[in-house]
Specification:
Number of strands: 10
Largest sheet: 5 strands, mixed
CATH topology of the largest domain: Nucleotidyltransferase, domain 5
Distance between the termini: 48 Å
Order of helices and strands: EEEHEHEEEEHEHEHH
Helix content: 25-40%
Oligomer: single chain
Strand order of the largest sheet: 3-2-1-4-5
Number of domains: 2
Number of helices: 6
């Protein structure tokens, strides 16, 4: 059994191939937002390195958001097309929830920049939600951390770069110990998508390619501005 998994919701695209025992091979882009140009090439490399045929793929997974609107569309569309051609099911993996698979004993807080003081985020301890995945103002996420008096928090995601000063100030004021995840493991990755997809597949949590749908959580910024009359 092999699952091909796509992650294109962030600034770096990646593709992983995982088997039923959890062996995984991953290839990723080196350039920011270069998903459309390289994503199918990365998939071919994973299949080649695993030394299997495309016909051996059992399911196709995609990180469906939230994140970059364009990136989500690319990943979902690619996954749907491959699943349709191979006649295999799809697995819909929430981008934020995939962070729960990080091997961490403490509290983690992934935050994806949604601009204008907004983030897609969550606060988790293992698989338990302290703050469930969703769209928030960054100040609300930070206030939740302080209110819950969490002893230590590790932040992930590109929201760190966007709101680093706000995070530092809030954590200092609230007396919360915190760290920013190393850049090598900070962002969304197809490895997390693949590991989540494997768990879901074993539980029978698959959908048809028609039902693999993006989870944007918010309207695109251009559409928001258009509706507000500020475009």
């Amino acid at each position: 059994m092999y699952i091909l998994a796509f992650e294109t919701t962030g600034k770096y695209g990646s593709v992983s191939l995982i088997n039923s025992e959890g062996k995984i091979i991953t290839h990723s882009t080196d350039n920011n937002f270069n998903h459309l140009k390289e994503i199918t090439i990365l998939a071919e490399k994973c299949i080649m390195d695993f030394n299997i045929k495309k016909s051996h793929i059992t399911a196709v997974a995609a990180s469906v958001g939230p994140g970059s609107f364009t990136g989500i569309r690319i990943g979902v569309t690619t996954a749907r097309a491959i699943a349709q051609v191979l006649n295999v099911p799809c697995i819909s993996v929430g981008t934020l929830d995939s962070f729960k698979l990080l091997e961490s004993e403490g509290v983690i807080c992934p935050i994806i920049n949604a601009r204008r003081g907004q983030v897609y985020g969550g606060i988790y301890k293992g698989y338990d939600d302290i703050l469930e995945s969703g769209p928030y103002l960054i100040k609300d996420v930070l206030e939740k951390i302080i209110m819950e008096k969490l002893g230590s928090v590790t932040f992930y995601g590109d929201g760190i770069e966007a709101y680093e000063e706000k995070i530092r100030e809030a954590m200092l004021e609230g007396g919360i110990n915190y760290v920013f995840a190393d850049e090598k493991i900070r962002y969304q990755s197809s490895e997390l998508t693949a590991r989540a997809a494997l768990q879901m597949y074993k539980k029978g949590m698959t959908v048809s390619y028609n039902d693999l749908i993006p989870q944007y959580m918010r309207k695109a910024e251009a559409q928001q501005k258009l509706e507000e009359g500020t475009l």
